[in-house]
Amino acid sequence: MGANAGMKLDSMYQEIILDHYRNPHHKGLRDPFDTEVHHVNPTCGDEVTLRVKLDGTGADAKVVDVSYEGHGCSISQASASVMTDLVIGRTVVDALKVQEEFLHLMQSKGQAEPDEDVLEDAVAFAGVSKFPARVKCALLGWMAWRDATTQVMEGQK
Amino acid sequence: MGANAGMKLDSMYQEIILDHYRNPHHKGLRDPFDTEVHHVNPTCGDEVTLRVKLDGTGADAKVVDVSYEGHGCSISQASASVMTDLVIGRTVVDALKVQEEFLHLMQSKGQAEPDEDVLEDAVAFAGVSKFPARVKCALLGWMAWRDATTQVMEGQK
Amino acid sequence: MTHTLPGLLDTDAIRKDFPVLSRTLHDGKPLVYLDNAATSQKPKQVLDALNRYYEMHNANVHRGVHVLAEEATALYEGARDKVAEFINAPSRDEVVFTKNSSEALNLVANMLTWADEPFRVGPGSDVVITEMEHHSNIVPWQLLCQRTGAKLKWFGLTDDGRLDLSNIEQVITEETKVVSVVHTSNILGTVNPLDAIVRRAHDVGALVVVDASQAAPHVPLDVQALEADFVAFTGHKMLAPTGIGVLWGRLGLLEELPPFLGGGEMIETVTMSASTYAPAPHKFEAGTPPIAQAVGLGAAIDYLNAIGMDKVAAHEHALTAYAIDALKSVEGLEIIGPDTALDRGAAISFKFGDLHPHDVGQVLDEQGIAVRVGHHCARPVCLRYGVPATTRASFYLYSTPGEVDALVAGLEHVRGFFG
Amino acid sequence: MTHTLPGLLDTDAIRKDFPVLSRTLHDGKPLVYLDNAATSQKPKQVLDALNRYYEMHNANVHRGVHVLAEEATALYEGARDKVAEFINAPSRDEVVFTKNSSEALNLVANMLTWADEPFRVGPGSDVVITEMEHHSNIVPWQLLCQRTGAKLKWFGLTDDGRLDLSNIEQVITEETKVVSVVHTSNILGTVNPLDAIVRRAHDVGALVVVDASQAAPHVPLDVQALEADFVAFTGHKMLAPTGIGVLWGRLGLLEELPPFLGGGEMIETVTMSASTYAPAPHKFEAGTPPIAQAVGLGAAIDYLNAIGMDKVAAHEHALTAYAIDALKSVEGLEIIGPDTALDRGAAISFKFGDLHPHDVGQVLDEQGIAVRVGHHCARPVCLRYGVPATTRASFYLYSTPGEVDALVAGLEHVRGFFG
Ligand SMILES: Cc1ncc(COP(=O)(O)O)c(C=O)c1O
Ligand SMILES: Cc1ncc(COP(=O)(O)O)c(C=O)c1O
After folding, report:
1. Atom of ligand 1 nearest to the CA of D235
2. Do D68 and D59 touch, CB atoms closer than 8 A?
3. How many Cβ atoms sit within 10 Å of the Cβ of residue B91?
4. D71 in the Ramachandran plot: left (φ > 0), alpha (ψ -120 to 50) or beta?
5. CA–CA dist D270, C81 (Å, integer)
6. Percent helix, percent strand, percent coil in chain D, to nearest 5
7. Contact criterion met (CB below 8 Å) for D105 and D232
8. pLDDT, averaged across chain A
C-alpha cells in the first residue's frame, strides 16, 4: 500500500499545469456553437459547461471552437485549458485520437510513456495518473468535449 | 442417564424432568373448556395448543382443567406437564402466583433459590435457567396457560 | 473406517489457520464445529487483513484525496475486483456490496417493487419461489406481493428432498415476472437443477434470482454459466467477517432498475428538490459501506482461491458421502433430504427417533459437538416433511472424517442419555 | 499559543491506544488525522474485542443450543444493552442494529412508505427536512415523497450557518407527517435547537427523526431528553468498526409500523402463503446481523464511557474554540458555518482564498495532514453558500492543539505552493 507515499507532489503539479490553471486558454462561453453540455464530477462537485462549434460533417468535420465555463480544482481547470489547445483547429477524427491517447495516459496509474508529439502540454498530466482521486478531475473537460462532439456528429446523421 | 454427562447437563436434565417428559401428565386436549390458545416458540419451532376450564369468576375463579397438545423438546414437554400439576385445582390467583415464581426462577440465570413449597417438581427446572437458549422452552406452556387464563378472565368482565 | 477418503484436503494444515478450532469446551473436550451452514469460522489470514486495515489504512472511502482515503478506497474497490473474478462476473460494476444475503435479496425485491415496465410487478403478475427457500428468500417476495398485488407461487418438493419440477410449465408462465430460487438448500442440502428453471423463466421473459448463500462458500460459482439475472451470497458463511454480503446483477438491469437505499455515495447530484444517481454499483451502496468487511471478504477469497474451489468442493463431497453412510448406520436416524451425496451440499438434516432436536443438540454440545437444531429459517420444509425441527450437521473445508465419527459416537451417547 | 487548554483530555495516553495514529506518511511525516467527521480511527481495545470474538466465540446468533452460539448471542445482545444504556433508551428492545446511519434513516422512511393510518404518508401530507442534511437524510425522503405523493419541505439556513426557524409554523403544519433533522451538521458543525422543532412537530402530530451521526460520537446522547421518535447513528464514526449502525425508535412505533427487510431472524412464523413477525427489535433485523461489528460497537462504547462522554465533549469544545481562533487568523480563510464554538461540533469547513479544496487537500496531504474536501455529502449546503466544495477539518478525542497548529502551518504552505 501507500501508493503515493514518498511521491513528490511536484509530479502532479507540474509548472505547465499551474500555468494553465493561472491563465486558462479559451475560457468563457462563446457564440456561435452547435451544442452545449454540462458535466459534473459527483465525487468532488467539479462542474463544467462546455460548447463546441464544428464545421463540416463526417470525416471532414473540423473543431472550429471549444469554449467552457466551470469551477473546479487546478487539475480540472488546467486540463480543460490544455484540451482546448489540442482540439481546436483539428479534424474531429484527429481530435478524438488525442482524446483517446489522453484517456489512456490517465488510466495508466503512472505506467504509460506519454507521446509528446500527440499530447504536447498534456504530457504534464502523466503524474496525475498516479493519484486515483484526481484522475476524474483531469478527465472532466475532455469527457465533456467528447460528449458534446458526439452529440453534434449524431445530430448531423 | 449416561455415565459421562457433565455436571452442567445433569443440572438441566434432572430425573424429574425426564420422568415428566417420558410420562407427561394431563396431556391431550379435553372438553369442556373455556378457551383454547396456540403458542409458538419462533426460535425453535416448539408449539403448544392449550385449553383451560375455569369455574367461578374474579377472585373465586378456580382452575378446573388444563389440557394441551403440542410438540417440542423434553424441557418444554416436561414443563407443561409439571405446570398442569401445579395449577389444576388451585384458584386462579394462587396459580398465577406460582406462574410468577416460576418465571422469576427461569429468568435468574441460575442465581435464584427456588422455593420448593411453591414450585414442587418445578424446582427441577432451576438448572435450565443457566441455558439461555432453553429458557423459552421451559416457559412455553406456562405462558400459554397464562394467556388462556387471562383471556377467560377478561371475557368474564 | 478409513480416514483417507479420496479428495480430502490437508485438514491438519488448514485447521492451524483457524484459531477457534483449537478451542476446548466443557472440561477439555475439543470443539467439533459442525454448524458451518449457519456460519463459518475465520482463518487468521482474514483477521490479519482486518487488523491491517484498521491499524494502517482506515478511512472513509471515495472522495478523499488523502493517503488513508486513497488506500482504503483501493482496498475496498480491490475487494470488489476479487469478488468479480471469484464469480466470473463480466464486469466489476455488477458487484454490489450489501450487509448479507438477506439484504441482497430484499434489494432485488425492492427494486422490483418500484420498477417501471417491462419489470413492473403488480396485479396479474406472478412471483415464483420454491418450498425449500430460506426465510430470507420467502419473506421479501411475500412483502413484494402484498405491496404490489402480485401473486406468489412456488414449486413443491418431492419425498426425497428434491424440487418437484413436473409442473414447471404451470408454475412459471407468461404472467411470471421473477423466479427466485436457492442454489443449494441450507436445510436439505439439495443442489437444484437451475438450468431447467433459468431456461423456462427466460423463455417467458421472467428474471431469475439465485440465492447462492450455500453455494459460493462451497463450489466454484460462475455467474455467466448460471445465466441468472441476480445472484446473492453472504460473506460470513465463506470465511469472511459478518456484516458483508454480495448482490451480483446484470449491468443492464442494475442500470435500469430503481435504487433501493438512498443516501451518500449513491448519488450523482443532489438538490433539495431532486437527485440523480451514480452508476452501478455505487447506486446501490448508500452510506459508508462495510469497508473493513469487504476487505475481509477479499482476504477470504484469496484464502479459498489458494486452496482452489474445485478442491474445496471435492473435499466436502467426499466428506458428505462418508457422513451420509455413517449416519445411515445410526439406528433410528432418518435423513431429511437427499440421502446420497449426488447433487448435494454438505449440510445434512436428520430426525433421530422420537427425540426432539433441541435435546439432541444439547447433549451433543455437552460433548463439544456443535450442530444446529430448529427449522433453520426454512420452516416450510419442516411443515412439508412433518417434523417440528431437525438436527443439522454441516461441513466445510476444515471438517474431517474424525469429526463425522465423533458425531456418530455423540448420537449414540444421546440415545443412551434419554434411553 | 498555549497547548494546555482547559478541558483537554490526556491525548498522549489516548493516542497510544490508536495504532494508526503513529503512522508516518510521505517520507516520515507523522499522520495528522483531521478527517474524523468522515470516520474515526479505532482503538486497540475495539480490535481486541473483534479478534477475541472471531478467535473464541464466533457463531451465528439466536436459535443455537451449542456453546459458541450461546456465547455469540450473549455478546451480540450484550452490545445491545450497552447501546441502550449509552443513549439512555427506556428499553433495550428499542435498539435496532443496522449497517450504518443511512440504512437506519432509510428504514424509517420505508416503514412510513408502507404504514397504515395514522402514520400513512401520501398525497396531501408533508415531509419536512432541512437544507443542512447529509444526503443520507435527504434522498430517503425524496424517494418516500416520489413514491407516496407526499410533498417535501425544508428549513433554509441563515448566513451564519444556522437553521432558519423563523417560519417554523409555516414549514411544520397539520399536514406534516414526519420531520427529520440532523442533530449536528457534518459540514457546518452546527448543533441544532431540536427542542423547538420537536415541540412544534409533536404539536401537529408529526413524528420526529433525529440524525445523530455526528452527535453520538461526540456528546452525551439521551434519547429520552431529546423526546424524538427515532434517532439514527453509525458505529464507524464513534471508534467502532465499519458495518454497524443503530436506529433507536419508540417501542410503540416499532411495534405498530410495518417491517422493512424480510428474512431470517425477523419472523415469528412462516408458511408459504403468509408470515408473522417477531417483536422489535428483531422484526427489523433480517438475516445474520453484523455480529462482530455490534460487539465492536459495544467495546467502543466501553472505551468512550471509561473516558466519559462529557469529558469527550469538553475536549472537543476546547479544541474547536482554539481551532476557530487559529483558522480565523489565516489570511484569506473563511469559515463556512458558525464561526464561534457555541452550539457547535468539531467539524470546521472553510474556503481558502480562490484555491479549490481539492488542491488545498492535496497539498495538505503531502504534509501528512488528512482533511476532507468536497461537498461532504451535503451538496445543498454548498449551493446555499455559493461554494463548489469546502475543505473540512474535524476533530475527535485524540486530536490535539498541536494538530491544529500543524493545519495552520500546512495552510500557509499551501498558499506558498500555489502563490
Ligand atoms: C450527519 C450525517 N448523517 C448521516 C451520515 C451517514 O452515515 P453512514 O455513512 O455511516 O451511513 C453521516 C456520515 O457520513 C453524517 O455525517
Ligand atoms: C440458503 C440461504 N439463504 C439465505 C441466507 C441468509 O443469509 P444471511 O443471514 O447472511 O443474510 C442463508 C443463511 O442463513 C441461507 O442459508
Report:
1. 10
2. yes
3. 17
4. alpha
5. 37
6. 40, 20, 40
7. yes
8. 90
CA distance C417 to C31: 20
Q: What ipTM is given for this predicted complex?
A: 0.93
Residue D97, phi then psi, degrees to nearest 5: -85, 130
**What pTM was computed for the model?**
0.95
Q: What angle do CA D42, D45, D46 make, to 5 degrees?
A: 50
Ligand nearest to the Cα of D240, by number? 1
Q: CA A24 → CA A61, A98, A146, D257, distances in Å?
A: 26, 19, 19, 57
How far, in Å, CA of B130 to CA of B122, rounded?
15
Convert the pLDDT of each residue in D277-305 to its tens digit.
999 999 999 999 999 999 999 999 999 99
**Is A63 in contact with A90 (CB distance < 8 Å)?**
yes
Q: What would the grid cell of residue C358 be?
A: 433441541
DSSP β-ladder status, D95-98 and D245-249: antiparallel
The pair phi, psi for residue D58, each rounded to 5°, is -60, 125
Angle between helix axes C309-328 and C401-418 (nearest 10 degrees) is: 30
**Given the CA of residue D376, which atom of ligand 1 is nearest to it?**
14
Assess contact for D285 and D266: CB atoms under 8 A.
yes
DSSP D381-400: HHHHTT-S-EEEEE--TT--
Rounded Cα gap, residues A125 and A140, in angstroms: 13
Look-up of cell digits 479478534? D51
Q: Cell digits for D2?
A: 498555549
What's the pLDDT at A64?
Answer: 96
Render pLDDT for C35-52 as a digit per residue (tens, 0 to 9): 999 999 999 999 999 999
Grid coordinates in use for C58?
Answer: 482506515
Q: How confident is the model at residue A69 (pLDDT cuts 50, 70, 90)?
A: very high
The phi, psi pair for D350, rounded to 5°, reads: -150, 165
Mean pLDDT score of chain D: 96
Spot the catalytic one: D377, D379, D387, D405: D377
- Kindly indicate the confidence band of residue A7, based on its pLDDT and cuts at 50, 70 and 90: low
Enter the C-alpha cell of residue C309.
Answer: 474451489
On whether the CB atoms of residues C276 and A39 are closer than 8 A, the answer is no
Phi, psi of C67 (to 5 degrees): -55, -50
Residue C394 Cβ < 6 Å to ligand 2: no
Closest alpha carbon to A134 in A2, A52, A13, A7? A13
pLDDT, tens digit, for every residue of D179-219?
A: 999 999 999 999 999 999 999 999 999 999 999 999 999 99
Strands (E), chain A: 35-41, 46-55, 62-71
For chain A, how big is the Rg over CA atoms in Å?
15
H/E element holding B46?
strand B46-55
* C138 and D CB contact within 8 Å: yes
Number of other residues whose CB lies within 10 A of the CB of residue B113: 9
Q: In angstroms, rounded to a whole number, what is the distance separating the alpha carbons of residues D379 and D376?
A: 7
Under DSSP, is residue D183 helix (H, G, I), strand (E, B) or coil? coil
Write the residue in D70, D268, D269 that is nearest to B132 by C-beta. D70
Please name the residue that has the C-alpha cell 438538490. C271
pLDDT band at A6 (very low <50, low <70, confident <90, very high): very low
Span A89-101, pLDDT tens digits: 999 999 999 999 9
Residues 6 or more apart whose CB falls under 8 angstroms from that of A139 comprise A79, A102, A103, A106
Of C20, C25, C103, the CB nearest to D58: C20
Taking only Cα atoms into account, the Rg of chain B, rounded to an integer number of angstroms, comes to 15
Cell numbers placing C113: 417493487
Q: What is the Cα–Cα distance from B100 to B149, expressed in whole angstroms?
A: 14
Q: Do residues D410 and D361 lie in contact, with contact meaning Cβ atoms separated by under 8 Å?
A: no
D247/D253 Cα distance (integer angstroms): 12
H helix or E strand, kind and range, residue A134: helix A132-156
3-state secondary structure of C253: helix
**Choice from C97, C130, C134 to test ligand 2 binding pocket (greatest atom count within 8 A of CB):** C134
